[in-house]
Every structure is written in structure tokens, then in C-alpha cells.
Q: What sequence folds into this?
């Protein structure tokens, strides 16, 4: 038991049995754990009971006990000798639609041992959730898609453990954070009602399940904590993000935004939380334009345009020859095109400013970022007016969602003490560029705080802090979910936001065009 | 939900999901159950979750829910349509060393549907526990002996259900009451420390386990409640007996005695409970003499001896030709031999009174109950002096144990309001005969109350009453277990009790010899 917060491994010494105290082995151990864990009940699985007498005697009645709290009910998960140098491990998992990230953690010290990531194998069924959910509409499909992720976990957990010298039998806890659909597919639960009105998940609070019940090959008694969801469109990854941000503990009001295909937003403080989610469009994730792609080496992630001579200064990840552009690159580009006058406030190309870069074919205009000779693909990298129109809608949707939730609560953006940007994608966004295009409010840059992979971060906290786990349920229950009604008022605000930065420039005083 | 006490089946109506209330199916159902069960948490197994959406919709959001309380933590065990005429069933089980009794119960009405019984298949390994425990000393032996009882359960549960027209998938709960060793062998837990100093079970409180984890083929989510034990020699069958007797709820002091190879005794009232157990010897169960056997057709269970002419009036079960004698028959016989003067106060044959019935061979005397011509076996049925000496030791041990526990608590037998005799065997004992030989105290016959199969009775109560289940743990925790020290004082009392009825006849004023 080390670290700031009491963790899940408790070392206890049990008095050996005698004629004067013939309490059973299991109850003897449990009786020592009860005061430490401050509980009246601790469950032990039958399979753990089976070799407990042998272990206690071999360990001279002293043991490191891995315990876990399942909604107030403690479970004894593992019993190890104090002399065994093997660590007791847990794995925090960000179960993304596209990418899955594993973080191996020492449950006793809280230390991160290693990390690995892999593409969600369900991509083979379909890159987006809708295709996967349709595929899972029948039992065979659900089974297959469930096996894909379970097998993926088993392969990569095993690989991560091997690399780190951790035996998979020493992995006792998993904390899995994912959106509602991904969580359902992982649990083998039919997600079909999630996408059909009135959009009902099978379960909001799956709590803790036995790893072996899900086919996850780690310790036989290992538990998997699954983050709860608020509904079909507000998943456990967001709850995990809230935990990670600490927003729910603060006196002042903050906002947390996960920018992606869906914009998921939580606004609140230690007393209240309001959330909403809405389609923001794939443009923000770099998935809309023909050259859009996720951030990886060779992808354009930053752009500067000289307002004087219109030269483009492109930056690619790892500075490799360019092969595409990611979402944050698109936002940067859009801001720079606007600041250099190459697009007008409606987001339309201004031919006089674009110069040679502007091309036209089949009645459609495009601006060339990289000529074919300079690209890694041998093909021209360009952004069309259609791509830009799509980005305009996405950024307008995002701003309108933020405006809507703020109005619902009755605050202005100036009331926000912190604007958390969650998610891996979000961490690459240049807030200055996002403000410039009117995607996010015109707050001082210090207000913006990028969390990185907050879904993974929150899951890791579950494995290292009992308090974090205790907070999860309260957060979920405290969230008021605001159903976004796309009514006339919303549409009016959306239309007003479809300008750079906005039809009302007074909302963005810091954005000044030469 | 019917019956006097709220049972385990709760019918609830769930509001169908809508855009205004997108709570998940599982949480929607749980939220309805929470106030009914007065709890904050109800666990649902993954396998039940999997078809819950389908069920709720098919059942028009109205369901009979089988719920069970595992030490304060509620579990949803089954969900059935209100229009389904199939009953929700449970089975109470008395898991005896020799005999296993099953009682099929309607969980909604509490009604007994049917009963069946079978010989414990582990008898094939050994008739007594010690042999079985030694057999289970290695993994293969434990596995085999565990499978014997599990297979026996599966066969007989299936048979009982078929006979009653109950589908085994509609059996949701089992309550199993057995001694500590039998319980361990059923759970597949190594019993080897039970018989070795300091006599430590693996577990005192196994609580509730999943039926499928034990290989019991009933409903996939069915739970098995296992009565807790106080130690290696005070098993769950006794706790079940206490529940059934109601001793633990009474103002006045009562005693409960399970008479068998071990004499297990509980003394107490609603405020305190003291228990002890000690070897009483197989004589009391009819297992010691050559002709001793368990009660079954053709076995002598009652004897009258005419004090005038010494004629024997034997009664056999079902009045079939005699083939042996059971424990209650032995006690009857002993009392009658004493009253007729055929044995003296030391339990030795009085040749002058026995007449022709007394035979002698190889230096050993015996009294003939049935000559070979009249017996069902074609062999003489007789009781030797050795058999009688053994019975004398057994009855003396029983009385000494009762005396010891009463002295420990500081009461006299006259303080007892009820003397409960538990167990199937006990129910056949004629208290008058047992008093005559000084096996039990000289109380008025109304004080004696035979409970029949109290182990089964208590298990059945668990399936029909939430209160009964709630009481189990409190009873177990309240019991002070008195370790019988076979010291000089005990031996002195034992020696004094090895007379008919006792060296101190004033203890048995009602026993008068002509």
C-alpha cells in the first residue's frame, strides 16, 4: 500500500490458526482486511478459495491482497506472497472506435510500467460505429465483432506483459473506458437499440465484470471495471475524461469538450454537471477531405501562411514528406487562409488572394497545399471548397453546441475558469487557430487546457486511486443530460456561426484581420 | 409476491423508454426494483444482461423478477414474463453424509411442490466422513468426490423437476444445508485441515455461489446459498436447524440437540447462543452393533419388554419381518432391558432376569432379540454386552455434553423451556426411553420437541422468507462455540453418567425401577 491514495493492494498479517481460534482460513483473512478496507463484507470467488489454505500456509500467513470495490462491495481478487517479487499489475484501457491504447500499471506503486496501442480490429467490419452496429444486428455478427476486440485485447495484453516482464496471471484489474457502443460490443451486448429511437443502451452501469466472463485471459479472478455511460451518445470515455480533468471537484465552472465526429461537452463544477453531445462532423477529426487522415508521421499538422507573400509553411509530423492533413492541421489551415484573406468570412476562396494555388476543375475550386512533385504520395495535396464548406459546418456546429449548453445553464463563456480539450485529437488543436475560425470561444489562451488522452488518463486513475473509483458513480448520477433539439433557435445560432469567426465579430474581439 | 413474508420473486412494471427518458434497459429495471427491495445496488450478471432488452420488450415492460440477497447485496437472478404460467422454483437441500433430501418449492407462493431423496453417492468412497476426507487429500480425489455429489444433485434435481413438470431452467435458487465437511466437498474445497489440529475449515461463510460455478445444471444465473458453519464440527446444518426451531428468537432459554455420531448442541435464546459438539459415538445412530442400521422398512424401531414375564414386543418399520435395529430402537431396548431388570445399573446383563434369551459364546454374552427362524435375514438378531457397553458410553457422552454446556452457561436443565431434538434420527427417539437410560435430562415430556429434518426445514425457510436469510448471519456470529476439553472434570462427569440412569439417581426422579 503505497502512493498518495490508498490503492488496491493491501498487505496484511493473519494470526495463524490455533485451537483457541479455529476461524476458517478465508474468514481469518477477511477479518484482517475488513478494518483496513472499512467494510463488513468482502467476497471471495470460489476459485480463489480453492487454493487459499495452501497459499496462506506457504506465505506464513502474510499476504499482499489485491482487492477491488464493486459499487461498495469489496471483492478479494488476488492473494500473493509478500516475498514474491512479481508485481501486481493492472491495465488501463482507452477503448476507442479507431484506436485502442493500453497502459500497464503497477497497482502497488501506481507507477506506469509501459504502454502500447493498436488499431481497433473491428475496423475490419467497418471504420465507423454505425456499420459495426448494423453488423452486430444478429447473434453471429455480434459474436464475431465481440471476438475481434476480445482477441485483440488478449493478443496485445499478452504482448505488453511479455515486453515488460509481467506475467499475465499477475494482471488483476482492468479499467476500460470507451463510448457506449464500443463498451456494448466489448461486453457482447446487442447495441441495436442504441441507434434506433429512443436510443436506449442495454446498460448504463455495467460496473465490474469478471475478466474470464468476457474471455479476457489475465488472472482467473481478475475484475474489469467498465466506465458507466449516461446514454447512447454520452459514453464512459467522457466520464473518464471528467475524472481525469478534476472538473467535478472544482468550485469554479469549467467546460470539458471532446472534439471528434461527435462533440461531447460537459459543463459544471463540484455541485452540478450538464452534458450534451451532438454531431460536429468528421471534418474536425480530419476525416472529411480527400486528403484528411489521422495524425501520424508525414501528416500535415501545422500551417503558417505569410500574409505578405502568401507562402505556405507546412509542418508534418516527424518532418517527413507530406501525405495528408489531420484535423488540427485543417483548423490551422482554415485560420491561416482566413487571416491571409485567401478565404472570406463565408469561407469562400478569394481568387485574388490565393494566386496560383487556386485551381479549378469540373466546376469545383481547390487550393493546393502541396504540388504532386513534393508530396509523399506523388499526388497533389489540395483542399476543395467542398472540404472547406464541410469544415465550416463542423466548426459552426461545435460553437453552437457550446453556446447552447452555456445558455441552458445561464452562463457566458467568460464565466469559465478552464476550457478542457479532451481526447488525443483535441490535444493537437492550436487553440489560437480554433478561436480564429470561431470554433471555440474567444477566451484567453491560458483558459484552454489540453488533457491529451483523458479517457486513458481517467482509466489509469481508477487503477491507482480508490477515491477516483468512488467518484465515478456520483459523477454519472450528477450529470444532467441535455438533449440537443435541433429547433429553429438552434438552427439560427448555427447559421450565425457559419461565418469566420462569426456573423457577430464582437464575440471574437481578439480575431483581427489586417 | 405472495405469502406472509416477502419472498424472492418481485413483479414490477417498467415505464417503456422514450426520448424523454433514455435510461438503459437494465438500469430502468433496476430502478424499479430498488425501492421494492430497499437497496441502492442490484447486480445483474452479464448473461442475464444479454437477453434483457429482448425480454423486456417481449414482456411489454412487465416482469416477474427473481432476486436474491447475498449478504446485503442484491442480485437479479431471473426475469420472467407475468404471462408465463411456468413457476419460479427453488430447491431446499439437506446435504447429509448418508442421505440427501431435496424439496422443490414454488418461490412465489412458498408452496412445497415435491420432495425426493437419495443416498449420498460419496458413500461409494466411504460411509463415514473421515474416509472421504482422506480420499480427498489429493486433487484427483477431491475432484472425484466432488463430482459424485454434483452429479448426484444434477441427476436427482432433474428427476424431481421432471416428475413435477418444472423446467430445470426455472429453478433459480438452491439453499444447501450440510455439515462443514460435506459443504466443503460440495464446494470442491479441500477438507484436509478440518480433521487435523487445529481443525480449520477453508471457509466459514461461503455465502452465495453461482450454480454454474459448481456445475449444477439449473438456470444459468441461479444462485446457491450455502449455510455458514461455526467451525469444523459445527456445520451449516445446525445453523439451519436453529433457524427452523426459532430458538434464536425466543425470550426463554431452549436447547437444540442434533443426535448422531456427533452430538451437536446449541443452548440459548434471542440474546445469546452457546454451542458445542462432541463425539457421542455411533451407537446412538444405530451404527455400532452388528445388527445396527439406519431406519428403513423391516428395522426394529420400538421395543416393549413385559416386566412380568420378560416377553419382547418388537415393532418394525412397515411391520415387515425384522432384519436389524435402528438407533431409536436401541435406546428403547436399553430402557426396557433396564426397567425389566435384565441389565443392572452398570448396563451389565443380569442372567437371572434374562432367561433363555441370554446366550454366551467365545466368552461374550449376548441377548437374542429375534431368533434366526423369525428374522428376515435368516440369522439371529442379538445385542452383545459389547454393543451395550458402547451404547452406555454414547449415552453417557451425550448427557455429559449437555451437563457441560449447561454448567458453562450457569443454568440447570429446569431452566429450559424447550428441548428441541433435531435431525431425522432424533425424530424417532422416544424421549421417555432416552430419559430412562439417562441420555437426556429428566424433564417433562412436553418439554421435548422433535423437529424432524430441521436441516431441510431451515433450508426451505431460506427460499421462502427474506427474514430467515437475514437471520442466518446474525445467528452464526452470535454463537459462542465452546470447545469441549476432555479434562478430568469432564471425565469425572462422564464416568458418573455411565450408569443407568446415573450414579446420582436424584437427577432422574421420574425413572423408577420396580
A:
Amino acid at each position: 500500500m503505497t502512493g498518495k491514495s490508498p490503492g488496491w493492494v493491501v498487505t496484511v498479517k493473519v494470526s495463524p490458526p490455533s485451537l483457541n481460534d479455529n476461524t476458517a482460513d478465508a474468514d481469518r483473512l477477511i477479518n484482517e482486511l475488513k478494518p483496513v478496507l472499512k467494510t463488513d463484507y468482502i467476497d471471495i470467488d470460489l476459485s480463489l478459495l480453492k487454493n487459499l489454505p495452501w497459499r496462506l500456509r506457504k506465505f506464513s500467513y502474510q499476504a499482499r491482497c489485491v482487492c477491488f470495490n464493486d459499487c461498495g462491495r469489496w471483492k478479494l481478487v488476488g492473494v500473493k506472497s509478500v516475498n514474491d517479487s512479481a508485481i501486481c499489475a493492472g491495465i488501463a484501457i482507452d477503448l476507442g472506435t479507431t484506436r485502442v491504447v493500453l497502459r500497464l500499471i503497477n497497482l502497488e506503486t501506481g507507477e506506469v510500467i509501459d504502454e502500447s496501442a493498436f488499431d481497433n480490429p473491428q475496423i475490419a467490419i467497418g471504420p465507423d460505429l454505425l456499420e459495426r452496429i448494423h453488423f452486430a444486428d444478429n447473434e453471429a455478427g455480434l459474436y464475431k465483432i465481440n471476438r475481434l476486440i476480445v482477441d485483440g485485447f488478449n493478443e496485445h495484453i499478452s504482448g505488453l506483459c511479455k515486453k515488460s516482464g509481467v506475467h499475465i496471471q499477475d494482471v488483476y484489474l482492468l479499467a476500460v473506458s470507451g463510448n457506449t457502443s464500443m463498451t456494448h460490443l466489448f461486453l457482447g451486448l446487442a447495441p441495436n437499440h442504441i441507434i434506433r429511437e429512443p436510443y436506449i443502451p442495454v446498460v448504463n452501469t455495467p460496473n465490474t465484470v469478471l475478466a474470464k466472463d468476457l474471455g479476457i485471459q489475465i488472472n482467473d479472478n481478475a475484475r474489469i471495471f467498465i466506465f458507466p455511460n449516461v446514454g447512447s451518445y454520452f459514453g464512459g470515455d467522457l466520464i473518464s475524461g471528467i475524472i481525469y480533468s478534476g472538473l467535478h471537484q472544482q468550485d469554479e465552472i469549467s467546460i470539458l469538450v471532446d472534439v471528434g465526429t461527435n462533440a461531447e461537452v460537459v459543463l459544471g463544477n463540484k455541485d452540478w454537471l450538464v452534458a450534451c453531445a451532438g454531431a460536429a462532423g468528421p471534418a474536425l477529426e480530419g476525416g472529411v477531405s480527400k486528403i484528411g487522415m489521422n495524425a501520424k508521421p508525414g501528416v500535415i499538422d501545422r500551417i503558417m501562411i505569410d500574409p505578405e507573400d502568401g507562402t505556405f509553411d507546412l509542418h508534418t509530423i516527424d518532418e517527413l514528406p507530406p501525405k495528408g492533413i489531420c484535423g488540427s492541421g485543417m483548423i490551422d489551415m482554415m485560420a491561416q487562409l482566413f487571416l491571409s484573406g485567401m478565404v472570406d468570412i463565408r469561407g469562400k476562396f478569394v481568387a485574388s488572394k490565393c494566386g496560383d494555388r487556386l485551381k479549378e476543375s469540373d466546376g469545383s475550386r481547390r487550393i493546393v497545399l502541396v504540388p504532386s512533385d513534393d508530396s509523399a504520395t506523388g499526388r497533389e495535396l489540395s483542399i476543395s471548397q467542398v472540404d472547406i464548406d464541410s469544415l465550416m459546418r463542423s466548426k459552426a456546429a461545435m460553437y453552437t453546441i457550446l453556446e447552447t449548453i452555456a445558455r441552458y445553464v445561464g452562463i457566458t463563456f467568460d464565466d469559465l475558469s478552464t476550457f478542457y480539450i479532451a481526447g488525443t485529437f483535441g490535444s493537437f488543436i492550436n487553440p489560437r487557430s480554433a478561436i480564429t475560425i470561431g470554433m471555440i470561444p474567444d477566451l484567453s489562451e491560458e483558459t484552454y487546457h489540453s488533457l491529451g488522452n483523458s479517457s486513458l488518463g481517467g482509466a489509469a486513475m481508477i487503477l491507482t486511486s480508490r477515491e477516483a473509483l468512488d467518484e465515478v458513480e456520483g459523477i454519472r448520477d450528477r450529470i444532467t443530460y441535455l438533449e440537443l433539439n435541433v429547433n429553429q433557435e438552434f438552427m439560427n445560432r448555427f447559421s450565425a456561426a457559419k461565418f469566420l469567426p462569426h456573423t457577430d465579430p464582437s464575440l471574437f474581439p481578439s480575431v483581427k484581420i489586417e
Summary: Residues 485 and 500 of chain B are 24 Å apart (CA to CA). Chain B has four domains: 9-81, 89-226, 242-282+402-505, 284-390. Chain B touches chain A through 49 residues (CB under 8 Å).
